[in-house]
Amino acid sequence: MNDNYDPLIQAIDVHKSFGSNEVLKGINLEISQGEVVVIVGPSGSGKSTFLRCMNLLEVPTGGKILFEGTDITDRGVNIDKHRQKMGMVFQHFNLFPHMNVLKNLTLAPIKLQGRKPEEVRAYAMELLGRIGLADRAEAYPSQLSGGQKQRIAIVRALCMRPEVMLFDEPTSALDPEMVGEVLNVMRDLARERMTMVVVTHEMGFAREVANRVVFMDEGIIMEENTPEEFFGNPKNERLQSFLSKVL
Amino acid sequence: MREFQEAFYSNFIEDDRWEYIVDGLGVTLKITFFAVIIGIVLGFLVGIIRSTYERTGKLKILNAICKVYLTVIRGTPVLVQLLIIYFVIFASANVSKELAAVIAFGVNSGAYVAEICRSGIMSIDVGQLEAGRSLGFSYWKTMWYIILPQALKNVLPALGNEFIVLLKETSVSGYIALEDLTKGGDIIRSRTYDPFLPLIAVAVIYLVMVMIFSRFVTLLERRLKQSER
Q: A144-183: per-residue pLDDT in tens?
C-alpha cells in the first residue's frame, strides 16, 4: 500500500440537497497530508454538511469525494473500511454512555481492526495520559465535564490510528472555560502533523493553527487562503463583513 | 372457622383437587415462558426493521410486512387470535393445545414488544449512530454494540409490563380447553359448586407471580442503572 497520497482528500464538485433545499452548490477542496484546514462561515452556510460529506455521514447528491485516491461516493466502496481511517469529533461528543471511558476508546479498534485488547488498552491509556485523564479510565461519560468528554471523544477517534481527523464544531457545545483545554489537545495534534479538517467558530485557533482557512457561505467556498492573508487581507466582500462581525 | 376448614378441604384436599391448581400453574408458566421468548425475538426483529426503515429508509418491503402484522395483531382481540390459530390455522395439523397457545400468545406479544423496541431505539440520539458509523462500525454492528444496549435499558420497564400483561392474558387459554391456572380453578368450582375459594386462590397466585416479577424487573433496572452512575 502506498502511504503517501497527495492530496489525501479531494472533494470534486460536491453537491448536497435536502429535498428541494440545495445546501452545497459545488464544492472543490483538496486536503494534503499533514495539513490543518479550518472551515469557517456563518451558520447555515453548509460547512458542517460539507465536513460530514467527507466521511459520507451525509451522502453527496452530486460530485465525488476521493480519499487516498479512492472515490468513496462510489456505491461499490466499503465505506466502513475507509471510515476507520477518518476520525470524527462531534459537537455533542457522542460518547457511548453505557460504557466506561476505556471501553469507549477500545471498542472499535478491538472489534474492527482485530488488534489485541492489551495493545489497544495500553495505547488508549497512553493517549489518556497525554491529555491528563488517565485517572478517568474507569469513569462513565455522565461523570465527566463537557471538556473532558470532548477530549476523550478526540482520543476515541485517535485510538483507531486514523489518517485524518474531522472536527465538527468541537467547542460549540462547551462552557467557555472548557474551550481552551479542547483546543490545546487539537493544537498538540496539529503539532504532531495530524491531517485535520476543522469546522469551528474559534477564529483564534484558525489564525494560529491552520495552514489554510476556508470561508464558506451559501453552499460554496467564497475564499480560501493562508491565515495571514485570510484575516489580514480578506478579498471577498462577504468574508469582510463576516470577519467584522466575529472578530 | 370450621366452615372455612370444610370448604378448604372440599376444594383443595378432597380428590387431590389441589393438583388442578398446581398443574394449571405449571401450564400457565410454561406457556408464558415460551411465549415471552417468541415475543422478544419476534418483537425485536420487527422493532429493528421498523426503526431501520424510519432512520435510513431501507428495508421498505419488510417494513410494510411488519406494519400489516402490527395492524392485524393489535387490531384484534388476543382470544380471537388464539381461537383462530387453534381451530383454523392448526385445524388439520395435529398440534398440541399448548403449542398453539404458545404461538398465539407469542405472536401477539411480539407486536407489542415490537412497538416498545422501536420506540426504545428511536429514543437513542442519532449522534450515537453517527459516532458508531464514523468509527467504521457497520449499521448492524452499531445497532448491536451501541444502540440496542442503551435502548434495552430504556424500555425495560415497558417490557416488564408487557410480560405481566402476557402472563395474565394466558388466562383465556381455557377457551381451547387448555387446563391452565384459571381453568384449573374453574374446574374445581364446577366440581364443588363453591366459586369463592378456588377463584380467590387463583387470583392470589397470579398476584403473587406478578409481584415477584415486578420486583425482579426493578432489581434488574437498578443494576443496569448503576453502570451509568
A: 999 999 999 999 999 999 999 999 999 999 999 999 999 9
Structure confidence by residue, pLDDT tens digits, B166-214: 999 999 999 999 999 999 999 999 999 999 999 999 999 999 999 999 9
Interface residues of B toward A, Cβ cutoff 8 Å, are 125, 127-128, 130-131, 133-138, 141, 145-146, 149-150, 153, 227-229
With CA atoms as reference, the chain B residue closest to A92 would be B127
Q: Do A157 and B149 touch (CB under 8 A)?
A: no
Tally Cβ neighbours within 10 Å of residue A176: 7
CB contact under 8 A, A140 and B228: yes
Q: Which residues pair with residue A65 across a beta bridge?
A: A11
**In which element (H, E) is residue A124 found?**
helix A117-130
Among A49, A54, A111, A120, which would you mutate to test the B interface (most chain B Cβ atoms within 10 Å of its Cβ)?
A: A111
Give the strand pairing for A195-199 and A164-168.
parallel
Strand segments, DSSP code E, in chain A are 9-18, 21-31, 36-40, 62-67, 70-71, 86-89, 164-168, 195-199, 212-217, 220-225
Domain that holds residue B134: 2-228
Q: How many CA atoms lie within 13 A of A69 on its CB side?
A: 6
Q: Is the peptide bond before A7 cis (omega within 30 degrees of 0)?
A: yes
Asked whether A197 and A31 are in contact (CB, 8 A), the reply is yes
- Which chain B residue has its CA at the smallest distance from A158's CA? B135
Enter the pTM of the model. Answer: 0.89
Q: Do B134 and A87 touch (CB under 8 A)?
A: yes
ipTM of this complex: 0.93
Q: Give SS3 for A197.
A: strand
Q: Domain with B99 in it: what CATH number?
A: 1.10.3720.10
With residue B104 as reference, give the H or E element that holds it: helix B97-122
User: Does the distance separating the beta carbons of A95 and B127 come in below 8 Å?
Assistant: no
| d(C-alpha A211, C-alpha A234), whole Å | 16
Whether residue B127 contacts residue B142, with contact meaning beta carbons closer than 8 Å, is answered with no
Of B136, B150, B229, Cβ closest to residue A80 = B136
Three-state SS for B147-200 is HHHHHHHHHHHHHHHHHHHHHHHHHHHHHHCCCCHHHHHHHHHHHHCCCHHHHH
Q: How many domains does chain B have?
A: 1
